[in-house]
Specification:
Layout (H helix, E strand, L loop, with lengths): L3 H4 L6 H21 L14 H13 L16 H15 L4 H12 L14 H28 L11
């Protein structure tokens, strides 16, 4: 008859594996602290104060495509850094604000604009809430009038509470 030791193989030393994993994590932890996002530390160079003012006004009208609720000027994401550099380069190439916005809309869609142009595609977003509010008010008035017609006035001799 086989002994219980031969039926069940010995378990691996779990405490040894755990100690080894913790040691490996402790050795790799300093490397994780050195990891930083890749960014270009050089500041943007403007040709004039008017160009800088125009740049900041334009960057405030554009939305960061990663952050989704911050302007291009406010965002600290890597893509926002890159887009700010690209916007400045396009400005220095002589493009006007409409051309720069069109360039970014072609790449990222209308989402990149804080104030998208009103057209047939997004008219539901502009007028949908108002239409729903008016329709809801209309349904409410209709229901109240219908119920008021169904109520019978009480006689003076009927018991009231």
């Amino acid at each position: 008859m086989p002994t219980p030791r031969t039926l069940f193989p010995p378990r691996p030393d779990l405490h040894g594996w755990l100690r080894g994993g913790l040691l490996l994590a402790a050795l790799l932890l300093p490397w994780a602290a050195l990891a930083q996002a890749v960014s270009d530390p050089t500041p943007l160079h403007y040709r004039s104060a008017a160009e800088e003012a125009r740049f900041h006004a334009l960057a405030a009208e554009l939305r960061c495509v990663q952050c989704q609720n911050q302007s291009l000027a406010d965002s600290n994401a890597q893509i926002a850094h890159d887009l700010r550099r690209e916007v400045l380069a396009l400005m220095q190439q002589g493009r006007d604000d409409a051309q720069i916005k069109q360039f970014l809309v072609e790449r990222y869609g209308d989402f990149v604009l804080y104030r998208p142009a009103m057209d047939a595609r997004n008219s539901v977003l502009w007028f949908g809430p108002v239409v729903l509010l008016v329709a809801g008010a209309g349904v409410l008035v209709w229901v109240v009038r219908r119920r008021s017609r169904q109520l019978q006035p009480m006689d003076d001799n009927e018991a009231r509470w």
